[in-house]
Amino acid sequence: MPRVPKQSGGIAIPAIEIVARILVALGLAGTIIVGADFFPASVIGVLLAIPISGSILPCFTLPVYGYQATVNLLAGFAKGLHGFCAFFTGLMLALPVFQPWAAFFLALLAALVVAVLVYRINQRWSSLSS
């Protein structure tokens, strides 16, 4: 990701923009799900992630909040994917061995552990760069 100054605090997003984002995301996801009969599950899974991360979030953020906010948003999203991957990898490994509820909580624990590790690594990296 390009290096841009971090923004402190949140930004106020109007309620109508939140509703518009949800409707656009549901429309794209619905279209992809309708196509599930024609594509393998792995393809549909990848396609469902693209509307949110690749179009909805940046397309709403860039024109209203600018380049810096968009880069910060995508950088945060990319960092969050570590936990996402840990959750689904943990779920895939735990489901054949444990009851579904236990596999879910183990996968959730894996995601939390990875999120904390990524956070601490980023903190350490930031302190070394300063």
Quickly describe the structure.
By secondary structure, this protein is mainly α.
Q: How would you describe the overall organization of this protein?
A:
There is one protein chain. The chain is mainly α and 130 residues long. It has one domain (15-129). It is 80% helix and 0% strand. The chain is built from three helices and no strands. α1 packs across α2 (41-94) and α2 crosses α3. The chain is flat.
- Total E-strand runs: 0
Relative helix content = over 70%
Distance between the termini: 18 Å
Strand content: under 5%
Separate helix tally: 3
Please trace the helix and strand order, writing H or E for each element.
HHH
Shape: flat
Question: Which sheet architecture does the biggest sheet show?
Answer: none
Global mean pLDDT: 84
Number of domains: 1
Q: Which regions are unreliable across 5 or more consecutive residues at pLDDT < 50? A: none
Q: Round the Cα radius of gyration to an integer and report it.
A: 18 Å
Question: SS-based structural class?
Answer: mainly alpha
Topology (SSEs and partners):
Layout: H1 15-34, H2 41-94, H3 100-129
Helix pairs in contact: 1-2, 2-3
Characteristic terms for this protein:
130 residues; mainly alpha; 3 helices; 80% helix
